[in-house]
Amino acid sequence: MILDSFLGGAPDAALGDDESLDRAHIVDSVRALELLLFVEEHFGITVENEEAVPENFDTVSNIVAFIERKRAV
Amino acid sequence: MNVSQVTRLHEYLERTTSRLPDKAALVCGGERVTWAQIDSAATALACALRRREVERGDRVVICLENSVESCVAVYGVLRADAVFSLLSPQTKAEKLRYVLLDSGARCLVVEGAIWDACRPSLWPLPELLSVSVVRTAGNQPPAREGVPPAVVVERYGDAVSGALSPLPDASISIDLASIVYTSGSTGDPKGVMLTHQSMVAAAESITTYLRNRETDVVLNVLPMSFDYGLYQWLMVTLFSGTLVLERSFSYPMAVLAQIDREGITGVPVVPTIASVLRTYAKRGMRYEGVRYVTNTAAALSVAHIETLRRTFPNARVYSMYGLTECKRVCYLPPDDLDRKPTSVGRPMPNMEVFIATPDGRRAVRNATGELVVRGPQVMRGYWRKPAETAEWLKPGDIPGEFHLWTGDQFRADEEGYLYFLGRSDDIIKSRGEKVSPREVENVIYSLEGVKEVAIVGVPDDVLGDAVHAFVVLDEGATYSAVDIIQHCTQRLENFMVPKYVTFLASIPKTSSGKILTRGIRELARSAMADQDTLSRK
């Protein structure tokens, strides 16, 4: 769902929930930042610099888990 | 500092390895690799290439992620007396095939995922003898369905574990070391031919003005297919430093965490990276150990300079300008940055420039016109493209010498400091890389139902220029902007994919039927103002 709204133009059929967005070249420095800002805006959370790491952002599963954690706080 | 004369690039590797075999050469993906390890891996690859009949002067195409293997491959190819071409790991089948065919490559060293995606559509390639695949899925032997039987396909790991044999070591300084593919205005990428001599000269000039020393540790996040990324590795070898190599800059905080951990002193950037850093910098970060930051590809804005200074408070910031055809032209001494923030400075050591004015004069100050370059760093020409070569390399004053006509408009001030004004052709610079409008147009034209396409660059805070496509559809065709962008994403590297698509009923033309670029740019401006243009977001 995140990627549906964010990526729009990317062929999403091939992308698994645990696939690295960076390794699949779906994000680069610019797109990853856009994704971060999108997540902040769309889910009403603030991402600290220390949280902008692959463990929180590099797969669909990681992003979902990160957002859930942030919203639970 | 450099006492012995180096004639070929790989002699830097030999020199550094013999002095500092156990020093870390490369830190990449959690691995630390010493100079001795790089050296023996390069020899193993050179022997493997010779075994697969790669001979002196033959071309080897390397299509890998930034990795230990991509660094090793550069020197492995040179040690086999062959010529390397590095391609972006985002390269799609059509481009890979074009480069393999155009270069007449004998061997391809390729990432497993790229091999799997491109393999079906590469053939025939009459000159290709072998393929060496790095990182195959599940470390299985690489797939070879559809590959002609004469072509050897093997795991890289298997290829380099064969017996070592003596290498002929016959190359000399005027042999080609690399062919660097770059976007051309015709749409077909052009292979920039660089000799050992010109690459050694460029590496010596740059490390001289950056005052590089053995204790420098350089962070490279740029693809090695981009000569700016490649030279970080070559120069680190020259000054016996250490390279911290990253696949990408997607997660800047994770990458920058290595600055303190690894003692990084040098950070090369392009304006897009400075833009991305700006957002993170606002949230607070500071790296005191960095001694210098370099920028090329496009000018830094005053805001970028501010960001870099705040993030790297002890760094000297170098604004530079160059083109693949001669690697680098000029740099602004950091002490002049406040005085002339928009200048790209003065020619680098061992290079001379003049401005060819529209009235046919040559000037070095108080002039505006096309920048012309001379020096040992200048390319040998475009591979198998004599007409384009003759357009860019024109006879100089010394018989047999050629000047490089850059196609870039420049101004020189009263002190001879240079200012980039713009390009004479319609090449777009996005994320620091060259985008040929023709190349993107050709891809969009391949969609059935597309009647006309025009591609222009529009100013963008982050990208420098964003690629904007104007499309006229045949009656009955119903593509959306997303369709066009998706089609491009599957066929082009990311930086070439349009950010904006606007559909038009017709494309403005001159009376002779030529597409009116200025008219299109005007449309682009008003489309941005109206906000009715679809971006891919």
Q: Brief description of this entry?
A:
Chain A has 73 residues and is mainly alpha-helical. Chain A contains four helices and no strands. The longest helix of chain A is centred in the middle third of the chain and has 15 residues.
Word description of this protein:
The complex is a heterodimer of chains A (73) and B (537). Chain A is mainly alpha-helical and 73 residues long. Helices cover 52% and strands 0% of the residues of chain A. Chain A has helices at 2-7, 29-43, 54-57, 60-72. Chain A is globular and about 30 Å long. The mean pLDDT of chain A is 84. With 537 residues, chain B is an alpha/beta fold. Chain B is built from 15 helices and 29 strands. In chain B, the strands form 7 sheets. In chain B, strands 17, 18, 19, 21, 22 and 23 form a 6-stranded antiparallel beta sheet that branches. A 5-stranded parallel beta sheet of chain B has the order 4-3-5-6-7, sandwiched between helices. Chain B has a 5-stranded mixed beta sheet with strand order 12-13-14-15-16, sandwiched between helices. In chain B, helix 2 (35-51) packs across helix 3 (68-79), helix 7 (196-209) packs across helix 8 and helix 10 (271-282) crosses helix 11 (302-311). The interface between A and B is medium-sized, with 26 and 30 residues.
